[in-house]
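hey all, quick one before standup. I had two proteins in the batch that finished overnight and I want to keep them in one place so we stop losing track of which output belongs to which input. First protein below, input sequence then structure tokens straight from the run.
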Amino acid sequence: MDDKQIHVLIADDQELVRSGYRAILGTYSDIDVIGAASDGDEAVRMAQLMRPDVVLMDVRMPGKDGISATRDIAHNPLLSGTHILVLTTFDVDRYVYDALEAGASGFLLKDADPDEIVHAIRVVAAGDALIQPSVMRRLVETFAATGKRAVSLGNAESNALLATLTDREREILTLVARGLSNELISKELFISPATVKTHLARIMSKTDSHDRAQLVVFAYESGLVCPGTL
């Protein structure tokens, strides 16, 4: 296999969906679909065997669901180079936060067009997080409307970690939680992308976050960002 290609594993319980994604992704020279799984258990087994760069993970599948499969893959030290891109629709937004906590690096709406799908795969494969603004808005609305998972304003550990951040780091973390890329953050704050990257590395270290998606979780759980503020 060409090392310059992004190796992708598709996990979805519908054959039509799997075939559709395989056909779409096959038209892009830098994408190589190396396998397709019909449930979470199979996705975990195939990920361990094939070591894909990205797993396109459906949420609702028979047996082990996409959240559990994401957790198994993300927490496997042998799969540290594998990133999870969760496929979601508006009616499964309640799973988005759980997927973030499980270790997903990004979210993609199932009705996204081919170029959006490939862009998301490339972003996640590069080690960045991708949460579409529309998904982020729905996520925040879900928090506000259902209170399904209350923001931990009183969490002593989160507050202590938040207190270690400088004003600039808090500012950058807030923008990350809003879904801005490094480039957009640099424009917003009139600093270089390299400086943004340096700040993000320090923020991740201080908050014990493994990636950009984990920073979004921390921003909400610490109370730095609250529903209705975006």
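OK second protein, same deal, sequence then tokens:
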Amino acid sequence: MTTALEKDVAAPVDNGRRGSHAMRWWVLAVLGVAQLMVVLDATVVNIALPEAQLDLGFSNSDRQWVVTGYALAFGSLLLLGGRLSDLFGRRTTFIAGLVGFALASAVGGAAANFEVLVGARVAQGVFGALLAPAALSLLTVTFTEPSERAKAFGIFGAIAGAGGALGLLLGGALTEWASWRWVMYVNLVFAAVALVGAILLLAKHTATERPKLDFPGTITVTAALFSIVYGFSKAESDGWTKPATLGFLIGGAVLLALFVALEARVRNPLLPLRVVLDRTRGASYTAVFLTAIGMFAMFLFLTYYMQQQLGYSPIITGVAFLPMVAGMVASSTTVPSLLVPKVGPKVTLVVGFLLATLGMALLTRIGVDTAYATHILPSLILMGVGLGTAMSTAFIGATSGVHHTDAGVASAMVNTSQQVGGSIGTALLSTLAATSFSNYVSDHVPPTKLTMAEAAVHSYTTAFGWAAGIFLVGAVLTGLIMPNKVPEPSEGEPVLAH
């Protein structure tokens, strides 16, 4: 039965071209493997860091660069990577990103010293910035029929959301049963599968014209994103009031404002402002950004709690997150096709955020020795269902109604929102948690072993409380911005017929 909302969207005519229609579900499998590889790398390395540090002998102060190097390269180059896939073809960019990511992973796995490991992580970030937007934009131009599009984006959203939790499990298993080097080598398996599929299945892009790259915009936004991500990294390690922290954050904000001014004037902008000013897409980017702030913090502090307070091993910690993964997969693969056509994206997004808010708020009840089944499991299920609902709906909205020539950069905005949100969430909530810890200890003098444990838990619950507030802000903002009509599919791209 067709609803009024569904009638707003006309299904495009199937042209039967390879990559555009005939092999679309196999294409989704290939893109899903590549996306999983990139998302896993955000968390899989964290678990292995202590062992890598012992093996290569680098300091605690240097350790953060293994994570920060990847985040800086990935976050600052995403928009450029998205635009390159629009200009030079998504298939070409996707394959180049896959091969480069695999080679960087091989070098990182074989690293004999700290400098090589960090260099490999930076290279992974560079090629990940090519790969991630190309994967999402390929999905955008491949699935243009509304009901199939909803299912495909739901599956892709589930991978994007659950990958972080799966990274914790995979990182723990590889570190415990093999070696820290296998958290790098495992990418070769993912890349090989995706590469064979890409060569066999992805259609070759055809272009009648190739616009020039916007160099001033590219340089400005790359510098802006680098400054913002690095500024938040400095805030986490050095504090918010240090000159270097303030300099990078303020500089990044100024460069971002300059970038917007440039994009309104140039003929072939890197990021056409029409992409972000559309209310459906704008609300979706906001949703992805706010989801990332809270979700990254939840992974970080709940991991600390389970390992340091409850005494879980890395593998058991990863297993403990699986109910959340199940909730994400269940909601992501059903909600977009069942709920969005009936109640619209606004209602769906708000409901998802409210469920996530409730789940995060429940985590503030944890204590020094509370049970997993009563205090953590209900929260993980609620957050899995809520975040899966919000993220899958936002992924559909973020790439809705774009011309195929803008699909890459519209997809890159999703990844950029997620990456910058994660950087902000980690820095902001880590600072709030550290302050809360210090205040608790100073209020309970002299500190005992129990006091220190209580202070740690108090710092985690403070972070969870703030994250719940951020999710609530997400519900309000997306409720105000998002129009309640089914997002239009994107336009398919011209490809070589077979």
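Flagging for whoever picks this up: Residues 18-205+270-481 form a domain with the Growth Hormone; Chain: A; fold (CATH 1.20.1250.20). The chain has 20 helices and no strands.
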